[in-house]
Amino acid sequence: MRRAELLGTGLFGLLLVLPTVLKPGATAHENSLENWKHPHVARDLADIKHDTLRVLVMQDPLTWERRPGAMTGLEWELLERFAKYKHLRIKAIPVNSRDTMLMMLQDGKGDLIAAQLSPNGWAAPFAKCSHPYRLVAHGTAQPNDNKKDAATDSALQAITISAWSPFLDSTGRLTYGAGKVPYRILDQRPEQLLVATALGASGQLLVSDATAAMEAKRLPLVKFGPREGKSIPLVFAVRNNAVHLQQALDTWLASAHEGLARKALIEAYDNGLETRGPKRSFSYLTFGGDTISPYDSLFQVHADSLSWDWKLLAAVAYKESRFDTAAVSKAGAGGLMQMMPATAALMGVDKGGGINAHIQGASRYLVRLDKIWRSEIPAPAQRLKFVLAAYNAGPGHVKDAQRLAKDLGLDPQRWDDNVERAIVLLNRPVYFSLPCAKSGYCRGQDTYWYVRDVLNLFAWLRGKQPAYRPA
Fold first, then answer.
1. Biggest CA pair distance of the chain
2. Catalytic residue among 215, 320, 376, 420
3. Domain of 214: which CATH number?
């Protein structure tokens, strides 16, 4: 087995190679490190009740994220429940360095670490761990490249592991399966490495099955492997002298009522929260003869204004509403073509407009979207993908994705493997907060599947081979 490599020379990296107990002849630098391993303040639950529970959080979808109008993350939401239970004010303090987290904990600038920790992981020698709040096992992630079998290539490479991983012990060694595959450890957060994998910048990545379950719906650019190995517990960490805080946390975690609520919350995250799974199967549809829907004649009439086959309108209508003229989305889009009220009004469709008006309005909107990219992307087949993406997400988000693609070194004028990758990343705070993302947060994973679903259905309706291979 190739020896694991730990990149980065931070304080924590130095601690890993120092003896656990320093001898009297140790240097001043070594003695300062030894001193740093212990709390520098006496701050426990009574002090926190008069102040605020300060939670040092790793920025990750399963720990803590700042999203539009809310802070989310499984560990954060669990600790919010704990704070409510103990009548505590709570504050998240995002920290991007393990060294800094431990120093802030010992200095009293934070009271608790939430970073998907294991009881014998990187924080264990310096803090007390709570009772477990869940179990996780190994999972893998690799680029979802339909053009080749990425597993074949990555099998010859070392598997990448985040230095934050709960599957590493306090010395930085892999706790399970270490003798089976070579591995390398990178001092980057799990989400950073996962995004790099999504962009095709690395081969196999070791993740938890919890990450795999959640991100399978949010990040279609990545292929996740099955759950493997033994389960390990995840815990929170507090200062060694915060005895009452630890006891309160353990008592709360042991509560049967809280256990049921925690199970429901974990299941919600495992299902990707509000991220709906794409509906990509059309095999159960049966169309008699040349008839696709009761609205075929209207699709044909209004397709005269388009440069595409009228069956494209039928494919859009089916994907949007399943040909249900009374359908209304959570966002407020309505009708056969699921146009937002403001867009419908802009296209001349009033509230009392019938089916004909809705199809006509959608046709006009597609034409308008096509004009936005006509000079920039002259090839009709390529431009159609941008048009469909804009119909789903709005042109502002697609333009954001083009700018982000350029920043990432991708081709901003090509959809497949380029702009589609960028738009998926716009559901993550690190990207939708960038200056190039002028329209902000976007459920890019939905748009990714929308383009593929409509084009596959369009091809199927014409008796052609699918535009994209099934996922």
1. 90
2. 320
3. 3.40.190.10
Between the alpha carbon of residue 430 and those of residues 11, 56, 317, 389, the distances in Å are 26, 18, 34, 22
pTM check: above 0.90: no
**Residue 367, both tokens:** 């034409």
**Claim to verify: residue 61 and residue 176 sit in the same structural domain:** yes
pLDDT tens sequence for the chain (471 residues): 333 444 433 444 434 433 333 345 544 445 545 666 889 999 999 999 999 999 999 999 999 998 777 888 999 999 999 999 999 999 999 999 999 999 999 999 999 999 999 999 999 999 999 999 999 999 999 998 744 444 444 444 689 999 999 999 999 898 876 556 788 999 999 999 999 999 888 789 999 999 999 998 889 999 999 888 889 999 999 999 999 999 999 999 999 888 999 999 998 888 875 443 344 444 444 444 467 888 888 888 888 767 778 999 999 999 988 887 777 777 777 778 888 888 878 888 876 668 888 888 889 999 999 999 999 999 999 999 999 999 999 999 999 999 999 999 999 999 999 999 999 999 999 999 999 999 999 999 999 999 999 999 999 888 888 878 755
Cα–Cα nearest to 170, from 126, 124, 216:
124
Q: Give the count of domains, the chain.
A: 2
DSSP per-residue codes, 391-424: HHH-HHHHHHHHHHHHHTTS-TT-IIIIIHHHHH
Whole-number Cα distances in Å, 302 to 243, 306, 316, 366, 429: 72, 8, 13, 11, 40
Given a contact cutoff of 8 angstroms between Cβ atoms, the answer to whether 323 and 287 are in contact is no
| Pair 54, 155 in one domain | yes
317 and 226: one domain? no
Q: Is 30 a catalytic residue?
A: no
Q: Which two tokens stand for residue 343?
A: 């867009």
